[in-house]
Every structure is written in structure tokens, then in C-alpha cells.
Amino acid sequence: MSTVHYLFYQAVLVKLQIVTLAAKLLILSPADRTLVLLSQYVFSLARYDTSYDIRDRAKMITSLLSGVLPSLFSGSQEERGGVVLRREQVLLVLFEGKAGVIVEQGGHFGK
Predict the structure, then answer these.
(1) Which pLDDT value is given to residue 3?
(2) pTM for the model
């Protein structure tokens, strides 16, 4: 059993944090193939979770990320509908009020 799969046997609050962390890592380093695959796996697990909160959070975050990484998620943008945000806007949504996040132009992060 993979480590990520094991984490989804945790409490709802922990699962919410895992989904949010996957999104934050993905938006800070979208070119990292390992993070893309890990995030896809986390979002697919969250999509079928028994908790409405987990499913709703995953759906919201995948919608946010669809404008930044359209190839990450299945379905065309026309099918999804809604507003498409740029990377800078998604960063603001995910990190608003958080100190210590420095994003470089190359898509990598530091502190």
C-alpha cells in the first residue's frame, strides 16, 4: 500500500490538509513530474472519499488548478465551465495571508 493511500485513512481534517498541500506544491512547482503525478493521485482519492467536505475541497481545488495546468485534469474547459484563473491568481487564493512563501519566475519556490 502506498504512503499516500495510507494517509487517506486519517481524520477528515488531515485529509483536507493533504488535498490542500498537494495543490500548493503543484502550483509552486508545476513542471515537476513527480508532484504532478502525486497530486493527480491525491485528487483521484479525494474524489471518491466518503466525506462531502473532502470531495468538495478536491473539486474546488481542481477547478482552481484547471486554468494553470489544463492537461492535468480530464475534460475540456468548455465542459467544466466557470472562471479560469491565472497562476498568480491561484497563488493568491492558496497562499493569501501566509508568510514566508517566495515564488521565483522559474516556477520553483523558496523561503
Answers:
(1) 67
(2) 0.75
